[in-house]
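Re: How this chain folds, sequence and tokenised backbone to follow
How to read it: Take the token row as a discrete description of the fold.
Start of record: The labelled sequence and token lines come straight after this line.
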Amino acid sequence: MATTITITGAGGQIGYALLFRIAAGDMLGPDEKVRLRLLEIPQGMGAAEGAALELQDGAFDLLEDVEVTDDPAVGFAGANLALLVGARPRGPGMERADLLAANAGIFGPQGAAIAAHAAEDVRAVVVGNPANTNALIAASAADGVPAERFTALTRLDENRARAQLAIALDAPVRSIRRVPIWGNHSATQFPDISHATIDGRPVADALRERVGDVRTWLEESFIPRVAKRGAEIIDVRGSSSVASAANATIEHVRDWVRGTDDWTSAGVVSHGEYGVPEGIVSSFPVRAVDGAWQIVEGLELDEWSRVRLDASVAELVEEREAVRALGAL
């Protein structure tokens, strides 16, 4: 039986980068057949229809069906996986409150449509920013769907952190593990190296040999570089991250479905772990077990780390209250 996957904003650049890798089996494996539902707004239908034609021409063995629609009831019908990529970007002169209001008008109805039309086992990952709060909005509107089924993508931030460590240590990125992202997918995020390893050795020890004062390097170089990498790419490339965001989305879903052998990062609903207020969607170190994300508990956070986590969580609480004031929660 094929897995039905809905991609919103499927005619956009990230959607385009996702579609062919999913059809080739990169996300669910070489034996899992897929049905794709490409959900777009009316203005994006042409791009999505063109992508559907290319999917046909790709003659992918695993691809059973492609449907393009601008109707959420059709787009989410029977969906086992929902990749919520499309979002309202921040425009010139737009205040953050305006951005939250615009996205509440997108993700609230999508959450309701998922509850009404998706499969009972549906799982959703929000890629469109502000991802954490958009996931909260969608989950709140999805009556009857457990909030744990809605997640926000922070795997891209983790990948960026691991890559920067690999460059600093002149090591393969595969050798670096346990670099979780805490908090919001924003400039306040906290990429944490306190439990990170390189070939089983503490990353902090290896960094000390390379950069000397590790704390200064983290504060002045590493954390700002990771947190502002998206803006850096826009400055250099002229547009936002596409292939790397698609790759992280594929990794997030693949691990969620197939399980992990170590920690990774995901924005998941808090139940009060690490003092994060219950109900907000925050990034934590997580494992995937039996198709569900589990927060890694019992990690030590020193005062320096705690301050950074608390600052990011405060931003998430502020966003939640702003959305609540709009009546979107």
User: Anything to note?
Assistant: The two ends are 36 Å apart (CA to CA). The chain has a mean pLDDT of 95. The first helix runs from residue 13 to 23. The CA atoms of residues 265 and 285 lie 5 Å apart.
